[in-house]
């Protein structure tokens, strides 16, 4: 069985993994700090919340209009440019006292390009790691992403306290610029995977249409989007739920930390210790596990039980590991980058829709029933997955990604 040590032994994956992890820390630090900075300047909780989420929705626009760039341009140039753009935006926010509207616009414009840069990195990982090593690479990346988000969000407060908001933004800028330099110096200048036929926008629309028209790819995309969107809707209500229930000060922060911790544990245990065939058989049960524990929020559950429910729900997110090889095998060889771009932007978009949907429901039913409804939606998504998903038989061959050839 492939091990994490073997996966990290690949120098190209190790570089992409390290820079992406540091990039998530920088993103989380920038998001938190900008929200603090805007709240301190305006006193508006609404504007602070908008600053926290402004980077999500524009990603869909970038995927729709620019997704083909992921396969049309050389990955080293594209990934380095992405980190450079993120670093420049954080530095500008730190060094120039922009109006609130201009700050939000800057972050939104950068977010338009984010799925393109991330898609290029994901495509390169898929070309670098083959077979079960690819799934373990995704597992390791998911676990590191959860840890990096926790570090960036928790460390954001400490960094702001020590350096001030603008100093914290400069730290975020430094992380991104260091990543850009590392990619430029250490990543081979590999070729693009698609000819530059037609316009970028036209090719992006056609490519996304072809991906979504294919039944297998469309189902696998939705399977990775829907449970996550539902659980994010429940997560967005944790602060309000803790307030309504009268939990101790800081109780909401404790609850919010439980979901990513559960995700980290699930990705490590299922990714490292479950055989490939077992991971694929566990897809529907683990997807159901993302929602079932949330049903306890319909009751006046005590704080420890709420924490346990969120931990178990986070563990269930390991279901996505069983979808990685089928998803990769279903993709066209010259459109992998655009597919990963669509996967990431769709996930971010629906994670914005989920809170809006279940937040509206909470106005009508209360926070607890709305969180339970979000859990029920995740369970329904799992039941839908079970109607069509058929894991490969143990020992059945799987298609390997096409190997990368140096330029």
Quick structural gist:
With 407 residues, the protein is mostly helical. It contains 18 helices and no strands.
Structure write-up:
The structure is a single chain. This protein has 407 residues and is mainly α. Helix content is 78%, strand content 0%. The chain contains 18 helices and no strands. The protein is globular, with a radius of gyration of 21 Å.
Enter the CATH topology name of the largest domain: Growth Hormone, Chain: A
The parts where pLDDT drops under 50 for at least 5 residues are 394-407
End-to-end separation? 32 Å
Classified in CATH, the superfamily of the largest domain is MFS general substrate transporter like domains
> Would you tell me the overall average pLDDT?
84
CATH architect. name of the largest domain: Up-down Bundle
Which structural class should the secondary elements be placed in? Answer: mainly alpha
What's the multimeric state? single chain
Give the amount of beta strand, in percent.
Answer: under 5%
Topology:
Blueprint (H helix, E strand, L loop, with lengths): L3 H5 L2 H32 L2 H9 L4 H9 L2 H4 L2 H21 L4 H29 L3 H55 L13 H14 L1 H21 L2 H8 L5 H23 L2 H6 L1 H7 L13 H14 L7 H7 L5 H30 L1 H22 L19
Based on the model shown, name its key terms.
single chain, 407 residues, mainly alpha, Growth Hormone, Chain: A, disordered C terminus
